[in-house]
Amino acid sequence: MKYIWIQLLLLVGTGALVLTFVRRWDRAHTRAWKRMAFAAFVIANVYAVFRPQDVTWIANQLGVGRGTDLVLYLLVVAMAFMTLNSFMRFRSLEAKLTDLARAIAVNDGQRVNDDRFTAEQAEVRAETADR
Amino acid sequence: MSDYDDVWLVIPAYNEGTVIADVVENARKVFPNIVVVDDGSTDNSAEHILTTGAHLVRHPVNLGQGAALQTGLAYALKQPGAAYFATFDADGQHQTPDVEKMVALLRDDQADVVLGSRFIEQTGEVPWIKRVVLRTAATISPTARKLNLTDSHNGLRVLNRKAAAQLRITMNGMAHASEIVAFLASADLRVTEVPVDILYTEYSRSKGQSLINGVNILFDISLRERARK
């Protein structure tokens, strides 16, 4: 029973991870939550630098031995979020890049091929006219 | 003028300079309309394609075969008179008589999509390890089972205009084969399979999908299923 709180915390973190993964990620409110989480992270950092003993106290309340261990656990969760976040972002960028490249390819192709084949037809016409 | 003025062959090509011109000219004996999508090749594929009578569309950067197919279809759909669209491999392993057979089925309005299969009328030409893996892929894939497909990863497909206009390939890499099958299973289209012959030449073997890439494909697909919900 000693570890129940930290276990709960980590499970909730993982659950939230799965949720952001499964649901559409780039809605405005998801972004707002991410920013708030980041702000909280920064504030907690500054606080922990000045009062490390408080981190240990919180760790003890959660059933974790040392503050360092608690920070490590939370880092793992934060890191998983970041990895997922950049993965999603890369995928959406890739989709945009594909659309862009496709638009360029089709437009250029249409122009080049129109030139090629109308020139060819003109040549054929010229040849038949010569005869 | 030809009987196949309303058919467009879409050939994705990535670094196929050594064979692409032959493959295209060979196919053009039957099919006058061909668009080759040069997927940002680093060799002289584009020059070779320009010597042929095929339309050339070039991706400014390499995007993958799935993306190239979608680009080729987008281009072909814009061409006047285009009614049937065939995806065809650049390495010379597909045969035009198979495409003619498939187009005939669509003309008869027996289906909206015809897929080539290596496993109806077994010819024994498929290397055994490939046969085992591909059969497994077709059997475990719920969508392939729903459509009763025997071969979910054949590059030879013919679509009519209705089907081609609906298709949106988002998997740029090699997972597009499964994506196409999934699309066909969810769309309201009539899909049928016909036996086709694949020429496993030295060249196509060297360019073909290594089986280890199957791991990448499975990963891509599982993520796509997630991301969709």
Automatic annotation (TrEMBL), chain A:
Highest taxon in the source lineage: Bacteria
Keywords: Membrane, Transmembrane, Transmembrane helix
Membrane-spanning ranges: 6-25, 32-50, 70-88
Name of the protein in question: DUF2304 domain-containing protein
Annotated source species: Kitasatospora paracochleata
UniProtKB/TrEMBL annotation, chain B:
Residue span, Glycosyltransferase 2-like domain: 9-166
Entry-linked InterPro entries: Glyco_trans_2-like, Glycosyltransferase_2, Nucleotide-diphossugar_trans
Family statement: Belongs to the glycosyltransferase 2 family.
Name of this protein: Glycosyltransferase involved in cell wall biosynthesis
UniProt source species: Kitasatospora paracochleata
